[in-house]
């Protein structure tokens, strides 16, 4: 499953999402408060992504779910402590 949280300000909507098990990985040092508000599947991730202005996506399941629909982001994927990491921004 995927852990996700939407952070809203007046002008921005940030989607933070990661593979749920990464929240338990002490080596990753992730903030549960930043990444987890609900547990979702890949379809819901895509719905939330379409509404956001910025995204922070971490983990193979999470990033692959997005790349299936948006392969153009593949070149932007980097590795963070062994896990795929993707940041997107709306300009």
- The CATH class is identified as Alpha Beta
Shape: globular
Q: Could you estimate the helical fraction of the residues in percent?
A: 25-40%
How many β strands by DSSP? Answer: 6
Task: Give me the CATH architecture, please.
Answer: 2-Layer Sandwich
Largest sheet: 6 strands, mixed
Tell me the Rg in angstroms: 12 Å
In total, how many domains does the architecture comprise?
A: 1
Beta percentage is 35-45%
Order of helices and strands: EEHEHEHEE
Provide a count of the helices. Answer: 3
Strand order of the largest sheet: 3-1-2-4-6-5
CATH topology (level 3) name: uncharacterized conserved protein from methanopyrus kandleri fold like
Instruction: Indicate the mean pLDDT.
Output: 96
Question: In angstroms, what separates the terminal alpha carbons?
Answer: 30 Å
Could you name the CATH homologous superfamily?
uncharacterized conserved protein from methanopyrus kandleri domain like
Task: List low-confidence stretches.
Answer: none
Structural class: alpha+beta
Fold topology:
Blueprint: E1 2-8, E2 13-19, H1 32-35, E3 38-40, H2 42-51, E4 54-58, H3 60-69, E5 78-80, E6 83-89
Parallel strand pairs: 2-4
Antiparallel strand pairs: 1-2, 1-3, 4-6, 5-6
Helix pairs in contact: 2-3
């Amino acid at each position: 499953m995927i852990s996700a949280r939407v952070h809203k300000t007046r002008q921005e909507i940030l989607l933070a999402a990661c593979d749920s098990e990464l929240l338990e990985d002490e080596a990753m040092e992730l903030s549960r408060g930043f990444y987890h508000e609900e547990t979702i599947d890949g379809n819901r991730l895509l719905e939330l992504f379409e509404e956001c202005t910025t995204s922070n996506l971490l983990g193979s399941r999470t990033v692959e779910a997005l790349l299936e629909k948006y392969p153009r982001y593949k070149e932007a994927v980097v590795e963070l402590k062994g896990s795929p990491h993707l940041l997107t921004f709306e300009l």
